[in-house]
Specification:
By secondary structure, this protein is an alpha+beta fold. It has helices at about 1-15, 100, 110-125, 130, 135-155, 160-170, 170-190, 235, 240-250, 270-290, 305-310, 340-345, and strands at about 25-30, 40-45, 45-50, 60-65, 70-75, 80-85, 90-95, 105, 205, 210-215, 220-230, 255-260, 295-300, 320, 330. The N and C termini lie far apart (about 90 Å).
């Protein structure tokens, strides 16, 4: 009997002993319609790790991390997760509705769910294309309104984590300043290249399918131009949305034209000529691999071409809409991924 009591006492000590916190975080989950075989977890330049995604979309790994916000990139899109050692965070998402479907569960997941809700809130709050239609005074007023709404949202979620909320509030001013400068650039561009004026033209650009194509060849149709390059990640990110648009507007009075500004960047060689040759091969290869449709053209002088300089393009991607008569509709048109892009096209009877 005495031995039994000793054993029971020993068991009770073991049972009541507090488990030591883990010196790592566990990150697992499942991705429907996965975009790649891996997830890339990063925090600036200080932390990088690749996690394998199985055939069925499941993944699981342990990560030794410093407490904070980390980016998650699946090869096409990205989201954020809050990680700290001893957390056990599970993520589920469907890439066909990426932002809307991201959900987190498990120990410490409330912070990640807040980040997801924050991203969705900010995306629904800020309509960049609508802001570009304002004048400078109207933009100032709208930016102040956005600031008030964002701060109210963070105050509402103050119980989540004081440091996380404080950092979010601290980021409002610089984020809105950057947004304002970007939108002002669009407003000024529309003043310099107003709707209804004759569009700069491209002539005899090399066509991926053979021969050459000029803007005049497309007269009688609206022309939606995508100025891009194979080395430009934001450009590549717009390709799926552009492909969807091309299918949805097939047979309608609009031509989709993609103009590459590749001139050798990203392709190392012993000479500029060899680098340029590799760039053109890379352009052809990417069009084939990604099954890019529409009219695929190669700019004659990259960023120095008359069309690119005429539209004052110094960063890409840039999207442009031209009317059937060859006049500018919008020198800084909405991107294919813009949620209201179809409403925009339909407003012109396309």
């Amino acid at each position: 009997m005495k031995k039994i009591f000793i054993c029971l006492a020993a068991l009770s000590i073991v049972a009541c002993k507090k488990e030591a916190p883990k010196d790592y975080a566990t990150f697992s989950g499942k991705i429907e319609n996965k975009n790649s075989d891996s997830l890339f977890v990063y925090q600036g330049r200080t932390y990088k790790k690749t996690i394998k995604v199985n055939e069925d979309g499941t993944f699981s790994d342990t990560l030794k991390v410093k407490s904070g916000v980390y980016g998650i990139y699946d090869g096409k899109e990205q989201t954020s997760v809050f990680l700290a050692n001893d957390m056990d965070v599970k993520m589920t998402l469907d890439t066909k509705m990426f932002d809307e479907s991201v959900k987190f569960s498990g120990k410490g997941s409330e912070k990640s769910n807040f980040l997801s809700e924050k991203a969705t809130f900010e995306e629904s709050l800020i309509d960049i294309e609508a802001l570009k239609n304002l004048d400078e005074k109207g933009l100032d007023a709208k930016v102040e309104s956005l600031k008030t709404e964002m701060l109210a949202f963070y105050d509402k979620n103050a119980a989540i984590d004081s440091t996380l909320i404080a950092d979010s509030k601290k980021g409002v001013e610089p984020m809105l300043k950057g947004l304002k400068n970007y939108v002002l650039g669009g407003i000024k561009l529309k003043q310099q290249l107003p709707a209804g004026t004759v569009s700069p033209i491209f002539e005899n650009y090399e066509n991926f399918k053979g021969g050459t194509t000029s803007l005049s060849d497309l007269k009688g149709k609206y022309v939606y131009v995508d100025v891009w390059a194979t080395w430009c990640e934001p450009c590549i990110g717009e390709i799926p949305a552009l492909q969807t648009l091309e299918k949805d507007y097939e047979g309608k009075n609009i031509a989709f034209v993609s103009i590459s500004t590749d001139e050798g960047r990203g392709y190392r060689a012993n000479s500029k000529e060899e680098s340029f040759k590799l760039a053109k091969e890379g352009w052809r290869k990417m069009i084939t691999e990604k099954e890019m449709s529409g009219i695929q053209l190669f700019s004659d002088k990259a960023f120095k071409s008359d069309f690119v300089t005429g539209y004052k393009i110094n960063s890409i991607p840039r999207f442009i809409l031209i009317d059937p008569n060859g006049n500018i509709v919008n020198a800084d048109a909405p991107r294919p991924s813009y949620p209201k892009i179809k409403e925009y096209f339909n407003s012109f009877g396309i």
